[in-house]
Amino acid sequence: MKGSIIMAKIAVILGSVRQHGVGINLFNYLKNQKSDIETSLNVELTFLNLGQYNLPVFDEDVPPMANQNRQLPANQQQWLDDIQDADGYILMSPEYNHSLPGGLKNALDYLAFQAQGKPVKTLGYSDNSRGGQFGVAALIPVLQRLEMIVLPKPALIGNIPAILDAKGTIIDDQASTKLHSGVVKMFKEISFYTTLLTANPFPRN
User: Fold this and answer.
1) Are strands 9-14 and 88-93 parallel, antiparallel or unpaired?
2) Based on C-alpha coordinates, what's the Rg of the chain?
3) Alpha carbon 196 to chain centroid distance?
4) Within a 10 A sphere around the Cβ of 77, how many other Cβ atoms?
5) Using one digit for the tens of pLDDT, what is the confidence trace for 63-116?
6) How do residues 15-65 score in pLDDT, each as one tens digit?
7) Half-sphere exposure of residue 199, counting CA atoms within 13 Å on the CB side?
8) How far is residue 156's CA from residue 130's CA, in Å, rounded to a whole number?
9) Is 59 exposed, middle or buried (0-12, 13-18, 19+ CB in 10 A)?
10) Residue 137 neighbours by CB under 8 Å, 6+ apart
11) DSSP of the chain
């Protein structure tokens, strides 16, 4: 007899703390797809906006992986709990000077084992045609150090202000089909691996 199907929980993370950056346009577009994606792929989506955690510059004396008795303020602990609670991730990153944003790197520095062994799909975005490719390239080694399972090919979406407004509404009808198909493909990929690994976690001992 087959067991019950596990509904995996995927966190979509906006990896920028800018209040009015172009990432919010894409973040809201993805939010607008929530119901359709959850229904079609049998997953649960949560949306985490990094700027809402108000994380200070990481300055703990002991590295998180070596400190099992951390006592953190509520906002910092909430970040860790939200990452722990998810089974897989879509991590959105812009590109700052050919690298990832400092705010995102800082947030990742807070993590210990909360994301260990869990799949992550990287999503680069930009206001130009490059789609944040260098930001994603710099992000990958950090995720690997956290022992996350990084899916092979990043999703890249460029020219965001020409395609989406701040509410995530399409403003370029010609780009709509391509954007939608790319987003659906991205969600299908991370849903597949998240469901697979949730049902069959890699043994750590």
Assistant:
1) parallel
2) 17
3) 18
4) 13
5) 999 998 899 999 999 999 999 999 999 999 999 999 999 999 999 999 999 999
6) 999 989 999 999 999 999 999 999 999 999 999 999 999 999 999 999 999
7) 13
8) 8
9) exposed
10) none
11) -PPPPP--EEEEEE----SS-THHHHHHHHHHTHHHHHHHHT-EEEEEEGGGG-PPPP--SS-GGG-SS----HHHHHHHHHHHH-SEEEEEE--BTTB--HHHHHHHHT-SSTTTT-EEEEEEE-SSTTTTHHHHHHHHHHHHHTT-EE-SS-EEE--HHHHB-TTS-B--HHHHHHHHHHHHHHHHHHHHHHHHHHHSPPP--
Please state the φ and ψ torsions of residue 104, each to the nearest 5 degrees. Answer: -70, -45
- State if pTM tops 0.85: yes
Are the CB atoms for 47 and 31 separated by under 8 Å? yes
Q: Which two tokens stand for residue 66?
A: 């070596």
Q: What percent of the chain has pLDDT over 70?
A: 97
Between the CA atoms of 166, 169, 173 and 179, what dihedral angle is there, to the nearest 10 degrees? 90
The model's confidence at residue 204, banded by pLDDT at 50, 70 and 90, is confident
Cβ neighbours, 10 Å, residue 140:
15
Q: Is 194 left (phi over 0), alpha (psi -120 to 50) or beta?
A: alpha
Q: Which domains can be identified in the chain, with CATH numbers? A: 9-61+69-199 (3.40.50.360)
Give per-residue pLDDT as tens, 119-129: 999 999 999 99
